[in-house]
Amino acid sequence: MTAPMVLAEGVRKRFGRLEVLKGIDLTVERGQVCCLLGPSGSGKSTFLRCINHLEKVDGGKLTVDGELVGYRQQGSRLHELREREVAERRRDIGMVFQRFNLFPHMTALENVIEAPTKVAGVSRSEARDQARHLLQQVGLGDRAGHYPAQLSGGQQQRVAIARALAMKPKLMLFDEPTSALDPELVGDVLDVMRRLAADGMTMVVVTHEIGFAREVGDTAVFMDEGVVVEAGDPRQVLAEPEQERTRAFLSKVL
Amino acid sequence: MIDAASPARTSLGDDADAHSIEIVPVRHYARWAAAVVSVAALAGLIGSLAKNGNLHWDIVGTYLFAGLIFDGLATTLWLTAAAMALGLCLGTLIAVMRLSTNPVLYGLATFFVWIFRGTPLLVQIIFWGYAAALYKYVMIGIPFTHITFFKAETNSLLTPAIAALLALGLNEAAYASEIVRAGIQSVDPGQAEAAHSLGMRPALTMRRIVLPQAMRVIIPPMGNETINMLKMTALVSIISAHDLMSNIQDVYAQNYQIIPMLVVASVWYLALVTLLSIPQAWLERRYGRGTARAGNASPLRRMLQGTALLAGRKNKEGTR
């Protein structure tokens, strides 16, 4: 039996005196879409950032595809890895940010080919072909030469998704991908994510889009104050939550 | 009596057709008056200078294109370029060190900036010029042993030109490092995070993502520094590094024509500074890629446009 794509056991994280993750247990199987929901400050974004080691974990164990991300295990100790080694392991984990974080000094195409050519060692012409194909897939085949400032928020976010996919990741992390978008632009981005899920990509999505979680998610995880309150089938968790806190949150969001 | 409910009707006649109304811009009569007074004052000043016999325009003319002046000019130019190159490279390294989480690197960088920014440039120039008084030989070896890999007489190594380059370059590095550091810190941390999430290493992230974006903030003050550097090279005349100012001084030490020689120097410094503004504008445009910002017109263009506005003409042609 192969290891799950993401396995978290008792993950803890603190910023100074504030403990933001108080022991998170979570499993995401291959090909599954896991949606993290919860009020702001519940630790869901922090947990997502721990998965690719943008945040260091203070306790517990977090593996991606059976491999520790920021650490090397020796007996009962976890040794922190050097930045270079962490970079190596992040290549397989794509991430999409709330504020897109496209490189503003590069065109859409240059954004997409940057990591394949500079990190994965793909030839420029091959990377360009692949990038054009990816941009076409996210519906932006005609925007390859545009700079991010010349694109709408929704278009920027789709370029960001194409950029992450260019490294052929086995796991995609989405940190509130539609929260910074105008309402009429949300649909295009969710469509791209929906297709990605249908193609079998493993995804962890922090979102406030309850509809998306219900429709696309294989699991929904409700977090509050650094703990997982409730997790399971989205239709169950979002329609008939067992916990009072989940119910209170959903009644405010819906 | 004016009807308060329909004030718009009072100034325009009822029969005025809205499509044929002409908008008249504000007339700046005071600007016209100020322009006339300024031009008259300047003309008076220039006229009095031209007629002043003590200025010896003939001497200015003789020396403006003299070989000795061109030699000094060449030294000033390469000294400026080399000192800025040294300052920028070393400054960038120091800026990255200062932002490092490594306390040793941070400490060394902070110490460097403290020393070279904290002492007068003139003192540093004289120091490097007379370093031979401190160490007769320059040696590279293992401390506290007799093993040496390299040994040379300080005076043969530290020629006035090299001493000048070191003094200007190291001093510049201290200032440049602060400019570069501000530039790096102006880049959204999300950019580095995005690069890291794509598997880019810290050094690659700095080179490909952070520094190119920092350049937009770095270039204007560095242009300033370059112009400053060109003029500060005049200070190295104190160790006679044979720059423009040194040679000017050599000349007036012999012919006592101090003012005319200073005019020659000023004309050349002014000409060079003017030339330097051109690459700066070009660099700003290049690193401004991807920012939707207008107003990239050259200074000359803007001034001409200002004249047009002063004349009260309607500026119908676009600014680009």
From TrEMBL, chain A:
The keyword Calcium does not apply. Keywords: ATP-binding, Nucleotide-binding, Transport. InterPro entries: AAA+_ATPase (IPR003593), ABC_ATPase_HisP-typ (IPR030679), ABC_transporter-like_ATP-bd (IPR003439), ABC_transporter-like_CS (IPR017871), MetN_ABC_transporter-like (IPR050086), P-loop_NTPase (IPR027417). It holds the Pfam family ABC_tran. The keyword ATP-binding applies. SUPFAM superfamilies: P-loop containing nucleoside triphosphate hydrolases. It comes from the Bacteria. Its EC number is 7.4.2.1. PROSITE patterns: ABC_TRANSPORTER_1 (PS00211), ABC_TRANSPORTER_2 (PS50893). Belongs to the ABC transporter superfamily. This is ABC-type polar-amino-acid transporter. It comes from Streptomyces bungoensis. The lineage of its organism: Bacteria, Bacillati, Actinomycetota, Actinomycetes, Kitasatosporales.
TrEMBL record, chain B:
Keywords: Amino-acid transport, Cell membrane, Membrane, Transmembrane, Transmembrane helix, Transport. It is found in: Cell membrane. It comes from Streptomyces bungoensis. The keyword Amino-acid biosynthesis does not apply. Belongs to the binding-protein-dependent transport system permease family. The chain crosses the membrane at residues 29-47, 104-127, 133-150, 258-283. The keyword Transmembrane applies. GO terms for biological process: amino acid transport. Coiled coil: none annotated. It is a multi-pass membrane protein. InterPro entries: AA_ABC_transptr_permease_3TM, ArtM/GltK/GlnP/TcyL/YhdX-like, MetI-like, MetI-like_sf. This is ABC transporter permease. The lineage of its organism: Bacteria, Bacillati, Actinomycetota, Actinomycetes, Kitasatosporales. Residues 73-280 form the ABC transmembrane type-1 domain. GO terms for molecular function: transmembrane transporter activity. GO terms for cellular component: ATP-binding cassette (ABC) transporter complex. Its main location: membrane.
